[in-house]
Amino acid sequence: MASERIKNQKVNVKFLQDVAETYKKSKSTTGVVDIVTFSEAKWGLNIKLFPVQKFILKSFYGLELDDTEKSIVIPDEINTREIGRFTEREFMQFLIDTGRTNLKEYTSGKTRSELVLCCGRRASKSSIASIISNYEVYRLLKMGNPQKYFGFPDGQEIAVCTTATTDDQASTLFNTMKNYCLNCSFLKEHVINKSKEFFTLATETDIQKELNPTIYLLCGGGRSHSIRGHNNLVVIMDEAAFFPITGEGNGEEVIKALQPSVASFTHDAGDGKRVGESKSIFLSSPYGKSGVFYRKYIESFDLSESVLMFNMYTTMINPNVDSQFLKDEKRRNPAMFECEYCAKFSDTVSTWIDDETLQKIIDKDEPTMPSQRKGRRGCEYYMGIDFGGKNDGAALAVVHKENEQIVLDYADVFYGGQSDVWYEKHPKQYEYANKALSGYDIIPLEDFADEIARVHQNFPIKYGWFDQFNGYALHERLRAKGLSQFEIKPFTQGLNTQMYQVCKSLICSELVRLYNHPVLIPELQTLEETKNGAHISVEAPRRTGYHDDITDAVVLAIYSCYLHTQNTAANSVTYGAQNGRIINGAKSYKSYRMGQIKNHGYNFKRPW
Fold it and tell me: How far apart are CA 158 and CA 137, in angstroms?
């Protein structure tokens, strides 16, 4: 019955005829249509653009902006009310007046080489980048021999390269690009090879001369070697605000690897003048005021001749986002809502320790691997422990005080077999994590307790501590092994703030000395500090494969050593120590007032 219904359904003949007719026109036309026409044509991408999407594409390619129809309707940030209706010309002026673009005025006919799209999540950034990349491929194919146009030898590859913080993130945008291409009547007949990470298209010259296809679309994470070394006409950097600031695959390093090749895409415009035709696109929702994306955003205001920047909240571009969803997101985390949906850079997020400061406290002459390190007699050692389970690691660190410095003696971290650090494209530093317990899905408590006892034999521990969360069972195991110097404590937000602030102060004063640990140092370079009122939190970036386990253990050890080696009562009160023991933070105001009353001889009940 189902097959009969399908057989009897009417075919939309007129639609198919329109597609065939427009496709024939596209093949017969020697010129190149503009990007909006290509996007909406049935033979092209056949996409119904949002009004602001159309506006962005027109602005980037210098097309004439409409000044008659008020097609752009702008809602508020949570999509509950309309705040204005604009023509394209009026909307550009609105963006200029409100500082949401780097332009001071708009002049049609001027195409720019860089687009910095600073927009909220779900604002269709990926769609805009995919349209631009496919349009550039369309232009190449319409040339017939793009190598000759740019002055390259026949057979020279021309690439459109997409990168992001991870391979998975890059492939998300790449798949959108690929789907657009394969749904385009004009482009799909030129596609030769397809895979998860690249596909190729052949030009007319490639076909006539029986050359390998020369148009490449490819993707890869920032640490991937597959994206390097290509002749890139278009470079797209997705989620650019979330690239690491330092270490392998950091944003600046990725740009240096990918962007130089774009400078070679020029053509002779007459009078010996060569004009560039490459495109670099930086997409992201904002984050902290640091890193490559924030630099591109700031620089755009001085480079408006070559760079176009738009800063738009989510619903400004995509009016279809559910209002209730946005309200819930705002209620759940107002600070993150400001970044992720209102497209505002955060004053609360920054790098915890900058690389220049970190390099000053690293002793590069010391052995780097934990197994090469031994303690010495007569030295008091302090241990910090961070015990994880399935995904997070179990880490320990040992320090001692030498003159005025706190010296790291030993640090190690273990991950279970289900942790994301073992993924194929994990951050490189975790290749050096201890694999002794990776055969277990969850790190065995007894085995980790045995490791602590073994380290204690080499570094006699005077005091050690760890969080009571998941810590009671470990504490009992250690007591059973005669290690009664270990304590568990509830790690409050206030105590965490104190620990990291004290540790940062000691590092900046060069009162800490680290050895060049292959896991710890790269991890420290990626940590982010987030301010929340009077408190701070220091954590790894919220991306797959990044962790802060060994850092937590080192900070616990340094803080413990700092408190136990102080001689003044003032330090004990300020930083949460009492009689050489760590307490859970400073006194409450009521406790402080009661102490004052008792000290001054008053003897009455609490007045509150």
Answer: 9
DSSP for 206-255, written as a single string? HHHTTPPP-EEEEEEETT-GGGTT--EEEEEETTGGGS-SSSTT-HHHHH
pTM: 0.68
Q: Which domains does the chain have, with CATH numbers?
A: 2-340 (3.40.50.300), 355-565 (3.30.420.240)
SS3 541: coil
Rounded-to-integer distance, Cα 548 and Cα 541, Å: 9
The single-letter code of the amino acid at 493 is Q
The pLDDT-based confidence of 218 (bands split at 50, 70, 90) is confident
Pair of tokens at residue 28: 């017969």
pLDDT, mean of residues 520-546: 81
Distance (Å, whole) CA 35 – CA 21: 20
Rounded to the nearest angstrom, the gap between the alpha carbon of residue 193 and the centroid of all alpha carbons in its chain is 30
At residue 129, does pLDDT exceed 60?
A: yes
Q: Are 141 and 190 in contact (CB under 8 A)?
A: yes
Structure tokens at 82: 């309309």
238-288 pLDDT, tens digit each: 988 888 877 777 888 888 888 777 888 887 766 667 778 899 999 999 888
Contact residues for 101 (Cβ-Cβ < 8 A; gap 6+): 92, 95, 308, 309, 310, 311
The Cα 375–Cα 396 span in angstroms is 15
